[in-house]
Design brief:
The complex is a heterodimer. Chain A is of the alpha+beta class. Chain A contains six helices and three strands. Among the domains of chain A are: 56 residues; 59 residues, no CATH class. The chains are: A alpha+beta, B mainly alpha.
Chain lengths: 177, 184
């Protein structure tokens, strides 16, 4: 906080009395010893008083009765159906009203990608299309289909004697072609 | 004894238009000052202020008291003023003319705090610099300067965090400081 750059970034909050006690004290002590930052503080104070003069002092007071008459007229006036629709559309589709659509669109997109990758995984599982025993001597035919590269492999192999068919990964096979 | 805002709101929700009239009398000047600050045009500000109270009346049944009535009302006012300002920007020449008209009116006010030429130039430069700010930056400056609202209340009105309010205020003041330069 002792760095002039950091002090100047916090000056605005300090002038508004919105900083914690310890931060406020650090800034106060720094301003006592740094003429440059103190000059910045004076500029900000002048800016603030000029803004106040411009924005508050020059605005006239408005009479209540005619103001209320205008509000009351709006309340009692029957609005046409298209004015009602326009008002509904404006409040519904105004920027703050649409804020919920951003996370909603993200969730929908994530859902679509998740389903897409699920289907792709599913199709990868189905790449191994079929394994069929073709005779009583342990000879099998396997049909493998890889969707992404559109590759089809037909593989004939024979189980080793005494091996369980389910342990196909460790099975020595002898491709016939 | 004077009723609280919440008591008046509850009466409004029960259909008492007199209670709403009381709320309007409490806040019409404050709302008007904020909208004038955002629009820099008195006639437009009057119209938007009346429309703000009309909207508030239409929506008052949905107000549950989760925030204070005035922050809820300011939120409607700021949104309407920003919306109106964006529509006005379609015709910037007309906007500039009405702003010049405002200067003339202000010069006729006897209690003008900008008494000498330097201050008059500063005021003109200040108006132009404020108009160059984005609506969001302008809103934090107005709500803080005019109403002296806390960062928490400003955050509730603008729908952002206190940290965002602090950074927007810092940025907006920095911009004004840069543009006003030697005048400060």
């Amino acid at each position: 906080m002792r760095d002039c750059k950091l002090i100047r970034e916090s000056l605005s909050g300090w002038l508004d009395g919105q900083l914690g006690t310890s931060d406020a004290e650090i800034i106060r002590l720094h301003l006592e010893s740094c003429a440059s930052c103190d000059g910045e503080r004076r500029q900000l104070e002048k800016l603030q008083s000029s803004l106040k003069s411009l924005l508050v002092s020059n605005v006239p007071r408005i009479a209540f009765e005619p103001f209320w008459a205008g509000v009351r007229e709006r309340i009692t006036k029957k609005r046409s159906w298209h004015e009602e629709i326009m008002e509904w559309a404006r409040s519904t589709f105004a920027a703050p009203g649409l804020a919920w659509t951003v996370p909603a669109v993200i969730v929908v997109l994530l859902g679509v990608f998740a389903l897409d990758s699920f289907w792709k995984l599913g199709s990868q599982r189905n790449n191994f299309a079929a394994v069929e025993s073709i005779d009583a001597h342990g000879r099998n035919v396997a049909l493998l289909r890889e969707d992404e590269t559109k590759t089809t492999v037909i593989w004939l192999y024979q189980n080793q004697e005494g091996e369980d068919e389910s342990s196909g990964e460790n099975t020595e096979t002898s491709p016939s072609f | 004894m004077e009723s609280s805002d919440w008591e008046l709101v509850q009466k409004c929700q029960a259909g008492e238009i007199g209670a709403f009239q009381e709320l309007v009398s409490r806040y019409h000047q404050k709302i008007y000052v904020v909208i004038v600050g955002l629009l820099r045009n008195r006639e437009d500000a009057l119209e938007v202020a009346q429309e703000t109270f009309f909207r508030a009346y239409r929506k008052i049944k949905s107000f549950q008291g989760g925030s204070s009535f005035y922050t809820w009302l300011y939120r409607i006012a700021v949104n309407m003023a920003i919306d109106s300002q964006r529509r006005q920007k379609r015709n910037p020449l007309e906007f500039r003319e009405t702003m010049d008209g405002l200067f003339e009116e202000q010069n006729e006010v006897a209690r003008d705090p900008f008494s000498d030429v330097h201050d008059r130039e500063l005021r003109e430069k200040l108006v132009a610099s404020i108009n160059d700010l984005t609506p969001e930056h302008k809103a934090v400056i107005i709500l803080r300067t005019v109403e002296g609202l806390s960062y928490k209340d400003i955050g509730e009105i603008l729908g952002c965090s206190e940290g965002t309010v602090m950074s927007r205020l810092h940025y907006a003041r920095k911009k004004l400081q840069e543009k006003l330069g030697a005048f400060l």
